[in-house]
Amino acid sequence: MSTSLKTRALRTLARNAARTSSSTCASMHTHLHQSNHSYHSASYPEPPSYTPAESMILSAALSRVPSHGFTQRSLQLGAQDAGYLTISTNLLPRGVFELVLYHLVLQREGLKDRVDGESSAGEGKSLREVWEQGKVGVGGRVRSLILERLKGNVESGVVGRWQEALAIMAQPSYIPASTGELWKLADEIWFLAGDTALDFSWYTKRASLSTIYAATEVFQTQDQSTDFRDTRRFLDARLDELRTFGAASSAVAEWANYTGHSIVNVLRSKGVRI
């Protein structure tokens, strides 16, 4: 895919994240009164997303992404590595997008293990233990969970290919599924951070976090700093902006639109032609 096509796709995804958050906020009040329960993926587990055969093929294909990208070639090699014929990739009706989505689902579902398993904070403590001993509030926990999720792109080896994934997700037919998974990620992060509010803020928090995560992930694809230091700074700036705008639905919608334009400006400042 040419550089111009990639950057147009990144711009589409960035602006769509802002547009989705804005439109979501506009319909929240009605939905809040229509629903008597909230959704948390940890409380209401989803049925298995993939069959055993699909999981084997996609898991093997992910290991090929660093070398071959999010491509049909990775899927074919993954099928062979898993002991299947290359024609078995026909089990995946959405083709390469299934590989992107598999990574997203795998990383989201793995966040809980990152919280309760031994963390990179040291001393053999889990992230949850670090939070509790340091009396880290919900906001600080949200920040660390976003960074843990972004770390998943690095540790899995796909961060260098993630622009390809963003371009695939930005295709019109895949935008609904992509933004739906983004919303699930935001919900999971708030839940793991200990947020239990069931009022109107339930929706605005998830809309704003979806925008923040999408913006930071786009930035990460362009970050050449050591250990993605600039990505952490970018995330902190977006969180500070959100605190400045407040949590009202109108403020979140305004901030989301502002952030969507900011992503484009940041990418331009890093030499990307958009």
TrEMBL record:
Predominant localisation class: mitochondrion
Entry-linked InterPro entries: COQ9_C, Ubiq_biosynth_COQ9
Cited function: Membrane-associated protein that warps the membrane surface to access and bind aromatic isoprenes with high specificity, including ubiquinone (CoQ) isoprene intermediates and presents them directly to Coq7, therefore facilitating the Coq7-mediated hydroxylase step. Participates in the biosynthesis of coenzyme Q, also named ubiquinone, an essential lipid-soluble electron transporter for aerobic cellular respiration.
Domain COQ9 C-terminal: 176-246
Keywords, in A-Z order: Lipid-binding, Mitochondrion, Transit peptide, Ubiquinone biosynthesis
GO terms for MF: lipid binding
Record PANTHER family: UBIQUINONE BIOSYNTHESIS PROTEIN COQ9, MITOCHONDRIAL
A Pfam family annotated for this UniProt entry: COQ9
Pathway: Cofactor biosynthesis; ubiquinone biosynthesis
Provenance organism: Verruconis gallopava
Cell compartments where the protein resides: Mitochondrion
Protein's UniProt keywords contain Mitochondrion: yes
Family: Belongs to the COQ9 family.
GO BP: any one term: ubiquinone biosynthetic process
GO cellular component, one term: mitochondrial inner membrane
The protein's name: Ubiquinone biosynthesis protein
